[in-house]
Amino acid sequence: MLALLLHGNLQYAEIPKNEVGRVIEKAYVPVLSALIGKEVPFALNITGFTLELLPGEVLGLIREGIESGLIEVTGTSYSHAILPLLSLDRVEAQIRRDREVKENLLEVSPRLFFPPELAYDPILPAMLKDSGYETVFVDGEALVLSNHINRAIKPVKPLYPHLIKAQRGEGNRYLNYLLGLRELKKSLKLVFPGKVTLRAVKDIEAIPIWVNVNTVVMLSAGRFPLMGPKKGAKWLGNLDDVVLYGTDIEFLGYRPLADYLITVDSFIEVFDALGREIRPPSELPHSGKRLYLRTSSWAPDKSLEVWRLDEGNARLNALSWNLRGEKAFLAENSDARGWEPLPERRLDAFRAIYEAWREKS
């Protein structure tokens, strides 16, 4: 059995705001329509902020999928905030506001929770259980790399560094790509099936999202050199009871990956080639594992540094720490601090902080 999850966030750090309509047209509508039309069940992780931006046509598609039992809506933080970087009051506010939007617009109360960027700390499960959540998605690679919990003593090395270099265009891109493919295939040996129980402030059930599995699917669906749907299916053929894809809907039909655009048809072709039953993530069996997960994210080094190390990010995090009210949500949006944020995304957060301060003073 395999599962799918699509992540939707219209505050995407690298997508201009004037492109939002095109993202909906090129990715949201065709992908949702295709999966519902083919009766493929999937989890939909979409921020409350994004839901409020969607036109009625798309909200109608989502409701149709929910009513037919094909879409399993997850909770998340309302404005795609990195939760371990917030005060506990603001973590709770983000969780609560997202649930309120989904209850209002979709008439569902999610039981599964997807932390933005899979950014996690051991207190989060307690807050989720207090808010009515039963299950959290986590980064599978971070789980297996949590045997040592102090990265100052033992840093985490990326599992496929040459593929990351190839994506960034560093060095000999094609050579790095070839070496990266070998590293990626080797990393699949770390993948284990099913859910786990997380040891945390309050223990909680967790569903691993495997970045390496995501990457194989994307390279295969995009028909990258030496990859294709059948090749990807062969690589993933021994895996069972895992989430086959658990990342951005924007990569399907709208946003190219290293100049290769993945279509929804080629995406579906990958799991058709696997010939395995697709079920909602909540139906994955439990592995029997009980594990500790370190404070982490799904960044290659499993740290939170992408969202805090840069001087602009550090300033945003410091200034937004004590904000309250509506302005705080936009100030906390992770995509002002993202991988390579556009100036307009970063300015949205700085502007929200300034306006909140002016209103207060």
From TrEMBL:
Domain Glycoside hydrolase family 57 N-terminal: 18-261
GO biological process, one term: alpha-glucan biosynthetic process
Family assignment from sequence similarity: Belongs to the glycosyl hydrolase 57 family.
Organism from which the protein derives: Thermococcus barossii
KW Kinase (keyword) present: no
Keyword terms, alphabetized: Carbohydrate metabolism, Hydrolase
GO MF annotation terms: 1,4-alpha-glucan branching enzyme activity; hydrolase activity
Domain of life the protein comes from: Archaea
Protein name: Hydrolase
